[in-house]
């Protein structure tokens, strides 16, 4: 009746022991499982990792990791695994002993937290967005007023000139409506749920969209924002909205940190980065703000940690951002100097450009 899957596999990866939970979760009978190899109950995309992990486990003696099972009917089940090796007295590996916990409820909770964080960001942006919509709306009202004035004119001195004037007003109206349309569309996409499909994306686009969504905050805070990431070179794989959410948070924090600085520069750059044989893009969001005191540098990623006054910060931005980036097999690093500024570096796995 143990609530988690327990199983043992021999040195060839054959399942030699399993419990009832494995039957109910995976949909195989005990007899079926005892004729199977461990590779048959894991999701295809992690088999390579599984082989490496198994080799490591045989040598090191214990192992903890998050992984993905595949049930008989194809259902994918995220699990947290703790594995131990059992050795003979002469040190010879005999079998593993593993406990696998179904973490679907935790994943669901994480997803709703990410969504809650995103809605908090939307809430924070709402005032700015309303302002961004108000500007083009004023343009539309003015130009339509001008057009109707032209049309009411009793005597037309030069019809060709009048047509040109009206065409210019119409063009202004169109441009203004398009900028509202873009904003509304973007906000709608951004606040959507988190069940997004992963795709290969250009980091340039993610940053451009994040800067677009925060333009009101950057201009309102008199911040000079510069996107130094070129178009069409730096690709990664991920959920576009989630990655945008990360950069929206970082940009927004940078603006807050620069509120009292004489120079307010926000620069977003990109470079190569290698760690543990893996190739990443290192995307730096650098500000010239207050900096972060060394004493709290370890706390800033904790949920609900904030130094902002009530109503200004939720303390969720960085913790959710780090969660999102970890889900993308990346990382967020921070370097800061009090009085000089801060750089948050987002590591994202390199991917080749999408096939046209
Ligand atoms: P919130 O912004 O709601 O406070 P975050 O998790 O985004 O929550 O940030 C936590 C804390 O980290 C902030 O309150 C602030 O003290 C610090 N912080 C984050 N980004 C910066 C930055 N660019 N410069 C200085 N401090 C920062």
The sequence of SSEs as H and E is EEHHHEEEHHEHHEEHEEHEE
Number of helices: 9
- Beta-strand content bin: 25-35%
Radius of gyration: 27 Å
Bound molecules: adenosine-5'-diphosphate
How many β strands by DSSP? 12
Average pLDDT: 89
Strand order of the largest sheet: 2-1-5-4-3
Q: Indicate the low-confidence ranges by residue numbers.
A: none
The residue fraction in helices comes out at 40-55%
Considering the chains and any ligands shown, give keywords for the structure.
single chain; 356 residues; alpha+beta; 5-stranded antiparallel beta sheet; 9 helices; 12 strands; 43% helix; binds adenosine-5'-diphosphate
Q: What's the SSE blueprint?
A:
Elements: E1 5-9, E2 15-18, H1 20-26, H2 30-33, H3 47-60, E3 62-70, E4 76-87, E5 93-102, H4 104-152, H5 159-190, E6 199-202, H6 203-213, H7 215-220, E7 224-227, E8 235-238, H8 240-257, E9 265-275, E10 278-287, H9 317-327, E11 331-337, E12 341-349
Parallel strand pairs: 7-9
Antiparallel strand pairs: 1-2, 1-5, 3-4, 4-5, 6-8, 9-10, 10-12, 11-12
Helix pairs in contact: 4-5, 4-9, 6-8, 8-9
Bound molecules: adenosine-5'-diphosphate (ADP).
Plain-language structure description:
- With 356 residues, the chain is α+β, with helices and mostly antiparallel strands.
- Helices cover 43% and strands 25% of the residues.
- The chain contains 9 helices and 12 strands.
- The protein has helices at 20-26, 30-33, 47-60, 104-152, 159-190, 203-213, 215-220, 240-257, 317-327; strands at residues 5-9, 15-18, 62-70, 76-87, 93-102, 199-202, 224-227, 235-238, 265-275, 278-287, 331-337, 341-349.
- Strands 2-1-5-4-3 form a 5-stranded antiparallel β-sheet. A 5-stranded mixed β-sheet has the order 7-9-10-12-11, with helices on one face.
- Helix 4 packs antiparallel against helix 5 (159-190), helix 4 crosses helix 9 (317-327) and helix 6 (203-213) packs across helix 8.
- It is elongated, with a radius of gyration of 27 Å.
- The model has no long low-confidence stretch (mean pLDDT 89).
- Bound molecules: adenosine-5'-diphosphate (ADP).
- The site of adenosine-5'-diphosphate has 21 residues, from helix 8 and helix 9.
